Amino acid sequence: MENQNDYNAEEIFSKALRAGRRTYFFDVRETKAGDYYLTITESKKFTNEDGTFFYKKHKIYLYKEDFAEFNSSLKETCDYIIENKGEEVISEKHDKDFELKKEKSENTEAKKEEKEDEKEEEKDFADVDFENDDE
After folding, report:
1. Mean pLDDT over residues 120-127, rounded?
2. What is the reported pLDDT for 4?
3. Is residue 16 predicted with pLDDT exceeding 80?
4. For 24-40, how does the pLDDT look when each residue is reduced to its tens digit (9 = 90+)?
5. CB-hemisphere CA count at 13 Å for 129?
6. Residue in 26, 30, 50 with CA at minimum distance from that of residue 40
7. Which domain covers residue 31, as residue numbers?
8. Is residue 134 included in any domain, yes or no?
9. CA 61, CA 68: separation in Å to the nearest integer?
């Protein structure tokens, strides 16, 4: 019997998606029997203290009989996230403009509070009670 490690599945098709320090690879491979399956690999780049770098990889093997349920579950999960949190990135690690947006938001909130305070002061100032000497 052939050792499983000796068998190197042939790569038929490959698509890469770069996302920051991560790269996702979608590879179509062929089984010994001639059927196709999908591997999804997440590769994440790390840097050693000496400046050299290395990659950590995680791989999922997905076979045709699971495509429909996997695709349905993935779509349902992605739709849930978008419906509940929107498409805007809210993590400072993943949003290059996070600090700028945060600062603008804080400034807008501060200006709003200032305007509300001014309105309160105007209201207090205009709400003067004069005593009537006729009574």
Report:
1. 57
2. 47
3. yes
4. 999 999 998 999 999 99
5. 0
6. 26
7. 4-87
8. no
9. 14
Given a cut of 70, whether residue 94 has pLDDT beyond it is no
- State how far Cα 87 lies from the chain centre: 8
Using the Cα atoms of residue 99, residue 102, residue 103 and residue 104 in order, give the sign of their dihedral. positive
b/e code 89-123 from CB counts within 10 Å (16+ = b): eeeeeeeeeeeeeeeeeeeeeeeeeeeeeeeeeee
CATH at residue 81: 3.10.450.700
User: Rounded to 5 degrees, what are φ and ψ at 99?
Assistant: -65, -40
Number of domains into which the chain is organized: 2
Ranking 65-79, 106-120, 121-135 by mean pLDDT, the lowest is 121-135
Q: Which two tokens stand for residue 101?
A: 């947006």
Q: Is the same domain home to 16 and 79?
A: yes
Long-range CB pairs of 31-38, under 8 A, 24+ apart, other chains included? 32/7, 35/64, 36/12, 36/64, 37/61, 37/62, 37/63, 37/64, 38/62, 38/63, 38/67
pLDDT of residue 42: 97
